[in-house]
From TrEMBL:
InterPro entries: LysR-type_TF, LysR_HTH_N, LysR_subst-bd, WH-like_DNA-bd_sf, WH_DNA-bd_sf. It comes from Acidovorax cavernicola. CDD domains: PBP2_DntR_NahR_LinR_like. The keyword Transmembrane helix does not apply. Pfam families: HTH_1, LysR_substrate. GO terms for molecular function: DNA binding; DNA-binding transcription factor activity. This is LysR family transcriptional regulator.
Amino acid sequence: MHAENLDLNLLAVFDAMFREANVTKAAQGLGLTQSAMSHALNRLRAFFDDPLFVKVGSRMEPTRKAEGMRAAVVEVMSTVRQQILAGARFEPALARRTFTLCMTDMGELVFLPPLLERFKKEAPGCSLRTLQVPLEQVEGLLASGEADLAVGSIRSAPEGLFHQRLFLHSFVTIASTRNKDIGATLTRERFESMRHIVVSLTGHSAESYDKVLEDQGIRRTVAVMTPHFLMVPLLMDRHSDLLATVPRELAEVFARLGTVRMFEPPVPVPQFQLNQHWHPRFHHDPAVVWLRDVMKHTFEHYPHISTQASPPARKSVRTKSR
């Protein structure tokens, strides 16, 4: 073995000669001058003590020795391109991969339509997959790479995750259009006297999305607790006496369907922020960096999202969760 004397760049020359069967075309494909290509080919011939490629008519045909080496060289070059070079950069227009996001059903409603539009224009070979999992599983999924990002209002995110704010949500209260007990406004007295739907991913009211109401001293009668935002209008359709306090953007979607009315809550309710979270293991992963930049660039002005895809921001501000 005298591998230390072989310039591994010459394998690219060998590979190009097999593909093109022409010195000039192979040189162009590698970005070399014809003189440099001929010099490299001569070095290959000297190393293997064989002509490797000989002129037959208008083509440079491989010798028997070159034919015997072909499969190994192709395998090496394929490994370099797919597993080494691909890790150094991410080219969305050429990539074929599935990105996985942990989010709620509300997150799907908010995030997926604009993201699908961006992917269609910028990364047509890539797809999206969503997971809705208990909070305690999020860190493990991000650490293993099974999920690329967790997106949403994760109030008690694990300490080890990075996070970045995307935008702020405000709350409104919704009621069925068939509810005749509520006039043009919703008073605190009426609000506290009615039954409520509460959305909590964990099943605990202390960790519900609208816990801020209790923090403001509001007393509610909870009729049902669910981890699914999209169940809210369905429950209201069957039980018109129910109320729910949900993010404004979600309420507007429900209102457009003509099944609910929106009201300002009876007390001021602070906004809450929607973040993207990722694991430090993938902080510098080119594909995940690209995805984070797309998320930030797409949603930083939500709900005023442009329908025209444009290049994502060069850098995103990354901070660790506190």
